[in-house]
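Take a look at this chain, tokens included, and explain the fold to me:
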Amino acid sequence: MSDVAIIDNGGANIASLRYALERLGASSHLTSDAQELRTARRVILPGVGAAADAMTRLRTLGLEEVIPQLTQPVLGICLGMQLLFASSEESDDGEDTECLGLIAERVARFPPRRDFPVPHMGWNQARLLTPSPLFAGVRDGDHFYFVHSYAAPLGPWTLAATDYGGEFSAAVHHGNFHGVQFHPERSAQPGARVLANFLELG
């Protein structure tokens, strides 16, 4: 059995993520099989793009109800983190996309602001708010790499915040579910530390 099952949800950067895990000595495999996910030691939900497309794929694969029932450590990355929330704003038809519902809040698109182009793309500092084993060895103010157009609000679920014309959740936690808005596989040593910590979660 590999150390990490990565949910095959059509996301990008899978090769980079698997290589980052490999550098940490962890094996991984890509899967959309419900039983493999239930029995995996750890699960990562990656993703980029639109929540509506990602949720349609999860429903098609029969994983919409499986993922919230997982009991092992789960890490959502970028869009994967946003899918842990109840819903995501959609700009095309004005209706929200229903997501996995583990955190009862809404993810919203960045409003148009001068000097803050969308998508938010680049390195930003993380302000650590809540002690968590996921950020053991990470310093308050360390930089992580972000690429996204939607942001999750702050709340009791927030482990770390960052600011882009206003603060939002850079990392979240709910039970055995963790999420990071940034790409740890592209975030140099601090990102590698977060992934290594995830591999140590029991």
Observations:
- The two ends are 16 Å apart (CA to CA).
- The mean pLDDT is 94.
- Helices lie at 14-23, 34-39, 51-60, 79-82, 188-200.
- The longest helix spans residues 188-200.
